[in-house]
Write a structure and sequence with these properties.
Layout: H1 2-22, E1 47-50, E2 55-57, E3 65-71, H2 76-91, E4 97-103, H3 109-119, E5 125-127, H4 132-137, E6 144-148, E7 154-159, H5 167-178
Parallel strand pairs: 3-4, 4-5
Antiparallel strand pairs: 1-2, 1-5, 3-6, 6-7
């Protein structure tokens, strides 16, 4: 008898929860729709504005190796890795390699432009102020980097800051360029 009562109560709770959901009382937050991009997945396409307001689409870079980095000006480890990313950017030609630094700063260009100028950054900085692209990729921490191969497949997911000027980083880029 206990089992039937428990099952009956469970059905009642599920029915009540379903009613609440369908009545529109419970609205899922954007976090509930977070994507989880894994190694081997096709990198979800997106369009974001750069520092000059131009739309940049990931799909436009097909055929290049792309270092896709989610960061913010207020993030200490992000600030630390940026000069090494610039060094890496200057090492490889634009024909085969691109960096997209996706800022999650809500203030956009107001804070990223002074940061870019202060650090002499030449790679593209895009703005994802509402963190929609970050959620799509499942970027849970900053910085978070996705290495995308020439075919648009995520080959590496890197949590935290890295020394992008290290020989290992350059070797990783060269390896991806061969694929």
């Amino acid at each position: 008898m206990k089992s039937a009562l428990s099952i009956g109560a469970g059905v009642a709770v599920i029915t009540l929860w379903t009613t609440v959901l369908t009545a529109g009382v419970v609205i899922p937050s954007p976090v509930a729709k977070r994507g989880i991009v894994k190694t081997g997945d096709e990198a979800p396409n997106f369009q974001l504005r750069d520092m000059e307001g131009r739309l940049v689409a990931l799909s436009d870079l097909r055929g290049k190796v792309v270092l896709l980095n989610f960061w913010a000006t207020w993030c200490g480890p992000c600030r630390v890795e940026m000069p090494a990313m610039e060094e890496l950017y200057r090492t490889f030609g634009r024909k085969d390699f691109e960096i997209l630094a996706v800022s999650t700063d809500a203030q956009g260009v107001t804070v990223t432009r002074p940061f870019q100028q202060e650090n002499h950054l030449t790679f593209p900085i895009l703005h994802d102020a509402d963190f929609r692209v970050g959620l799509t990729y499942g970027a849970r921490t900053l910085p978070m980097t996705f290495m995308v191969d020439r075919q648009g497949i995520v080959r590496h997911q890197i949590f935290g800051a890295r020394d992008w000027s290290a020989p290992e980083a350059q070797q990783l880029i060269r390896l991806l360029m061969k694929s």
